[in-house]
Design a protein that fits this description.
Blueprint lengths: L3 H17 L5 H12 L4 H20 L3 H22 L4 H14 L18 E6 L2 E6 L19
Antiparallel strand pairs: 1-2
Length: 155
Amino acid sequence: MLAESLIALAGAGGTALVGAMATDAWQTARAGAARLFTRGGAERQRAIAERLDHDAELVARAAEPERVRQALAPAWQVEWEALLAERPELAEELQGFVERTVAALPRAEQHWTQHVTAHGHGRAYGALGGNVVVHEAAQPDPPAPGGGPGEAAPR
């Protein structure tokens, strides 16, 4: 299983990649993504390149490009997760890709909102622009020694 920090990084990668689609930053982002995916073999790289072009065209033709980007980001997160599962040593390169891509985006595309909630005793990781923010659910205070139900509290 992929570490939570790598899953968050893959999410940032997906968000940055689709954020660049149909912007002036696209060709640079496309080249960077394709370069990272070459590590997965020539066949995979060709398939990824075709998909990049197809998805960018969907965004460019959309009446609501942001809605299309939001729909595509999770799929690209899955692609990045698969690549990192096979080649975890690429995490640093993916982090650099995210930082460069976000920096190259038009100002309007650099600001995203993401809601991450932890439930129970769980942890939730969110990544925007390469920053991983950890949210933990509130933990109840541990019971005082000897202060449980039916026990007298120490004096």
